């Protein structure tokens, strides 16, 4: 299938502020597949999402991320997006003075050739339609981007953007946090409606709840900046019932987080007088 | 008398100019008194800005430019903006007014809209009691110099109960760097009248240093409403020194809309004296600084009246090595019970070498009041850029969206469409050089 994406993450390592957080991630996502990454807080899930998208704070030190044969890591953030990657962020930014509609239209036109911009009327119709499906108040079209939105409103707005931009690889980072059960169902419907052979999903969550509504094909558990266990939907169910402790026991992990351990004290070789400010 | 006047204009010249224009004696005398003061007074002391280091001495000479009969005689660039404004339009080129028109309808209602030189002769009873009364010649060297050598200018009088629906429009155009370009605008809105005044202060092709030392005075009588809007885009060899001041009586209202889009240094001081009970004011100021530009922008609201209300917003975008000192002063005098004053100053810096300073000041001598201020100075947020880029938007477009978004809360609130469009175009011109 020519339109079915193939996304390969191979040995990806990444650091923040010189702390290594991702310690070698391997993952392959194909069109039509839904992968879930689960794991307690602080295990590196958002870092993986940010490294794939290209957040400037996250430095990839090793490994590859190849989408349909193209090296994402060589691209700027906007090029990655135009190549088909979409990240619904855990903490979307608020931007004063830029309306939701203006922003989305700029984003849609960024993917199109100059001279082939979407007409205003077509755009409005499409946006109104998608907002209706996601039960977003039509007023939000002309509200400033995420400004003053509640947590749940921001999440729905992320899904709206996904629906409008029609990406081929979708990463949802904690899209379920801050959503009540009704909103969760709406968001899950939004995702399920977009499941097809031309799109692959990576759903990051630390609750199993969302996966009751979006059934994953593959489930991966992340700890200490690595995928420590993979399986099918039954793995998510077991995590729901038993929590993460059995995995930690099985693998001999005491602290599943990454990047938070005290730095080992090393005797400095060249001592320099401390600076007092 | 051995006054050390650094002006390129002397007492004789001031006298001769005044005589050759047949100015009334009170005005001639005022000019000469002011000239003496100019030799004695100091330049104003501005917050964190030393005016003495700016080029503020080149005023040029009074030179008369020939009148024109229609806007078709203007350089093409200026015709378009004035297309729809055949009436109620006044044009000053360099030192003098070259075109003026007022609709019969407004003239019949008693509206006066003419150059200030003519008004001083024909309507002294309306001009003399107000001219240089909101701003005083004794304030500092700049106001004294202005009083001595202003030329051209505008006088707008709206009689009692007259509501002027269409904006009155003025173009101030400097095309010759050796001509005085220091107009004075005097607006008197009588009881329960209302009017919208729009001007554009701009320049064409000059390259030597020149000072634009202008003063605007607005008198808003009881129950009257004045919308005053001005856009400045003078070139980088012109130093813009502008005072604007309104005195607002009971239940009167002034709205200021100001776009400081110059390429040169600019001191801009916009003040409102809320004299009457229930008087209100609103000021929106947008500025952009590039290259080595220095801006010192002040908004001031002084409350005397009970239940008076003021709101002031300034937004500045600074790039390159430009510096902006943004001052907001809300002063509530003793007795101004239930007054309310709000102000916000925000500076967005686009380069690490741009400088911005926001200085909000609340000076309150009365207990029963409410007042608030907010100020911020910051760089473009990299997380916002990342967020926009993650949707496929290029870095340049992302920055543009954020910058325009920063200005939007002011620009989108401008009630006169023509002004907000023109301001938007000037903003784009400056940011997308
Ligand atoms: N922006 C950041 N600045 C500093 N440290 C960070 C940043 N992002 C992540 N980290 C580090 O990476 C660790 C993992 O964070 P994160 O990827 O957000 O985990 P998760 O999404 O699994 O909760 C954090 O504990 C922290 O030490
Ligand atoms: Mg996270």
Automatic annotation (TrEMBL), chain A:
Keywords: ATP-binding, Nucleotide-binding. The keyword Nucleotide-binding applies. Residues 7-249 form the ABC transporter domain. InterPro entries: AAA+_ATPase, ABC_transporter-like_ATP-bd, ABC_transporter-like_CS, FeS-cluster_ATPase_SufC, P-loop_NTPase. Gene3D superfamilies: P-loop containing nucleotide triphosphate hydrolases. Belongs to the ABC transporter superfamily. Ycf16 family. PANTHER family: ABC TRANSPORTER I FAMILY MEMBER 6, CHLOROPLASTIC (PTHR43204:SF1). NCBIfam families: sufC. This is Fe-S cluster assembly ATPase SufC.
TrEMBL record, chain B:
PANTHER family: FES CLUSTER ASSEMBLY PROTEIN SUF, UPF0051 PROTEIN ABCI8, CHLOROPLASTIC-RELATED. Residues 47-170 form the SUF system FeS cluster assembly SufBD N-terminal domain. This is Fe-S cluster assembly protein SufD. Residues 174-406 form the SUF system FeS cluster assembly SufBD core domain. It comes from Chengkuizengella axinellae. InterPro entries: Fe-S_cluster_assembly_SufBD, SUF_FeS_clus_asmbl_SufBD_core, SUF_FeS_clus_asmbl_SufBD_sf, SUF_FeS_clus_asmbl_SufD, SufBD_N. Belongs to the iron-sulfur cluster assembly SufBD family.
């Amino acid at each position: 299938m020519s339109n079915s994406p193939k996304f390969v993450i191979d040995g990806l390592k990444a650091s923040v502020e010189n702390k290594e957080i991702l310690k070698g991630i391997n993952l392959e996502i194909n069109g039509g597949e839904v992968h879930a990454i689960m794991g307690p807080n602080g295990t590196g899930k958002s870092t993986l999402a940010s490294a794939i998208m290209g957040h400037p704070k996250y430095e990839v030190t090793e490994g590859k991320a190849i989408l349909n044969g193209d090296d994402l890591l060589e691209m700027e953030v906007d090029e990655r997006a135009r190549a088909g990657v979409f990240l619904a962020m855990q903490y979307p930014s608020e931007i004063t003075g830029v309306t939701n509609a203006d922003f989305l239209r700029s984003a849609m036109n960024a993917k199109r050739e100059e001279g082939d911009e979407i007409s205003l009327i077509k755009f409005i119709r499409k946006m109104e339609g998608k907002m209706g499906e996601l039960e977003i108040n039509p007023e939000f079209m002309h509200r400033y981007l995420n400004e003053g939105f509640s947590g749940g409103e921001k999440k729905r707005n992320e899904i709206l953007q996904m629906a409008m931009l029609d990406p081929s690889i979708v990463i949802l980072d904690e899209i379920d946090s801050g959503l009540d059960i009704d909103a969760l169902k709406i968001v899950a419907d939004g995702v399920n409606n977009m499941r097809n052979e031309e799109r692959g999903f990576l759903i990051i969550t630390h609750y199993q709840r969302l996966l009751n509504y979006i059934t994953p094909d593959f489930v991966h558990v992340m700890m200490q900046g690595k995928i420590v266990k993979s399986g099918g939907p039954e793995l998510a169910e077991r995590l729901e019932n038993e929590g993460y402790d059995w995995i930690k026991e099985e693998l001999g992990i005491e602290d599943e987080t990454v990047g938070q351990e005290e730095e080992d004290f090393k005797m400095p070789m060249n001592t320099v007088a401390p600076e007092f400010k | 008398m051995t006054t050390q006047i650094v002006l390129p204009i002397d007492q004789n010249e001031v006298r001769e100019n005044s005589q050759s224009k047949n100015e009334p004696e009170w005005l001639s005398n005022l000019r000469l008194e002011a000239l003496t003061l100019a030799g004695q007074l100091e330049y104003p002391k501005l917050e964190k800005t030393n005016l003495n280091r700016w080029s503020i001495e080149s005023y040029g000479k009074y030179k008369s430019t020939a009148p024109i009969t229609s806007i078709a005689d203007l350089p093409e660039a200026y015709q378009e903006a004035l297309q729809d404004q055949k009436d109620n339009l006044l044009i000053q080129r360099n030192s003098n007014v070259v075109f003026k028109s007022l609709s019969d309808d407004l003239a019949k209602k008693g509206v006066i809209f003419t150059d200030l030189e003519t008004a001083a002769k024909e309507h002294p009873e309306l001009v003399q009691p107000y001219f240089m009364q909101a701003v005083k010649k004794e304030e500092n060297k700049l106001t004294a110099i202005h009083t001595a050598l202003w030329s051209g200018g505008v006088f707008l009088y709206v009689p009692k109960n007259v509501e002027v629906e269409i904006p009155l429009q003025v173009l101030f155009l400097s095309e010759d760097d050796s001509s005085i370009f220091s107009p004075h605008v005097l607006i008197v809105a009588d009881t329960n009248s209302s009017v919208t005044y729009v001007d554009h202060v701009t320049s064409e092709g000059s390259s030597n240093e020149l000072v634009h030392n202008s003063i605007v005075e607005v008198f808003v009588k009881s129950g009257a409403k004045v919308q005053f809007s001005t856009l400045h885009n003078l070139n980088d060899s012109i130093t813009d020194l502008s005072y604007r001041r309104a005195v607002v009586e009971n239940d009167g209202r002034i709205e200021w809309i100001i776009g400081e889009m110059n390429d040169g240094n600019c001191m801009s001081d916009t003040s409102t004296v809320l004299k009457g009970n229930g008087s209100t004011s609103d000021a929106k100021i947008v500025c952009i600084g590039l290259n080595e530009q220095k801006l010192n922008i002040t908004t001031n609201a002084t409350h005397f009246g009970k239940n008076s209300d003021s709101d002031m917003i300034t937004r500045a975008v600074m790039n390159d090595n430009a510096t902006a000192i943004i001052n907001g002063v809300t002063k509530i005098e003793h007795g101004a019970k239930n007054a309310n004053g709000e102000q916000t100053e925000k500076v967005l810096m686009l380069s690490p070498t741009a400088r911005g300073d926001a200085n909000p000041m609340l000076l309150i001598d009365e207990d029963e009041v409410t007042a608030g201020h907010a100020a911020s100075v910051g760089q473009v947020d990299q997380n916002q850029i990342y967020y926009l880029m993650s949707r496929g938007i290029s870095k340049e477009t992302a920055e543009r969206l954020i910058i325009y978004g920063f200005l939007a809360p002011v620009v989108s609130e401008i009630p006169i469409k023509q002004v907000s469009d023109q301001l938007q175009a000037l903003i784009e011109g400056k940011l997308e050089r």
